[in-house]
């Protein structure tokens, strides 16, 4: 194995459980990829270095199969799953209950429930279908059909047609831009419905003690089955890790192309060269001397907060970031694990992080100030509550984790053919065309997120191939 992110670890676990002798090589000083936690802001303060909320982790079929709770993983569910404040009036909020959420949306409640109910009622079946390659016969075609009819349209169109209130339209758009695409793009409604349905069924929980707990559970499962991990080892030439019956790469196309000793077929190499990474993020970690002073107090109870203003503002910000212009008011994602997990910080203190969508590779020094302005816009006086702060721009993110190319997350853009065919137009997305070498990163289906399913699928294909050779 090369790369010990959640997908690499999951693939390694599946191979080790099948009886193979497995070694993972990772360039980092610890396993986990972008799913790690650390004391960035001082002793006793636990910050998630990457992902914080885990809507796909809690429902991941492979994580459930592995029973990671046996190794100490505990999911914690905030009272409010998602909040989306606006300049005036109450914030729109999502609870882990479709009817309660709909009730809070007033005149839009019926339309909101109608949009999501067909998916929430078949949630487990939908998850089993969408967390795999899209170009396959789905495990649950009726469930996928119920999802698909809601998925095709741009989120801007869905929101404008169905909802009367600005706050409901903004709430849906906030979930849709988890795609890291402007909500006017085709298929962005798929993300809005998928993440909304997740919020109102299995939630967007945090891991008790930090996202590191997910990685620690995977590592414990790997070690239990005889696997081992070598950290601080950058593999630049695959001949250095051979002979091996299988080589599985938790890498994006950029890193795969840089490997020596890997003779990729010309067509596959050309596809990797054309891979697009998309919009990046700029992350800020904060330690506050108490809860954030949100205008609407119910926002303080939310595990995740979307700061972007109205649907129109979100569309403008996402479009600007996509074409290379730093938005004056970027879309900002906020994680507030302290609202449910008191182990993250000393008593009375609050840990939070915020990241803004910015142009690919953009290390503009103005970015941090613009993120703080968005925070101040909806939580006046928050600057005065800051005890410690750490900014991490796209360049620093890629230095920390080379899979975050140009500061992008999710393994590559989800527009065009890259949504369905990752990373190349071929029947088996995990095959590299080189016998015994497989790809298991977020650049393969089902894409980004801490769920391990790309690793699971790659390992499954690799084992089948090994059994026939």
Low-confidence stretches: none
How many helices does DSSP assign?
16
Sheet with most strands: 7 strands, mixed
Report the radius of gyration as a whole number of Å.
Answer: 21 Å
Helix % is: 25-40%
CATH topology of the domain at 6-35 and 53-75 and 208-276 and 401-467: FAD/NAD(P)-binding domain
User: Which percent band covers the strand fraction?
Assistant: 5-15%
Classify the secondary structure makeup into a structural class.
Answer: alpha+beta
Kindly report the name of the CATH homologous superfamily of the domain at 6-35 and 53-75 and 208-276 and 401-467.
Answer: FAD/NAD(P)-binding domain
Mean pLDDT: 94
Q: What is the second-level CATH architecture of the domain at 6-35 and 53-75 and 208-276 and 401-467?
A: 3-Layer(bba) Sandwich
Indicate the overall shape. Answer: globular
Distance between the termini: 20 Å
- The number of distinct β-strands equals 15
Multimer state: single chain
Describe the structure.
With 469 residues, this protein is an alpha+beta fold. The protein has a domain of 189 residues: FAD/NAD(P)-binding domain (3-Layer(bba) Sandwich). The protein is built from 16 helices and 15 strands. A 7-stranded mixed β-sheet has the order 6-5-11-12-13-10-14. The chain has a two-stranded parallel ribbon with strand order 1-8.
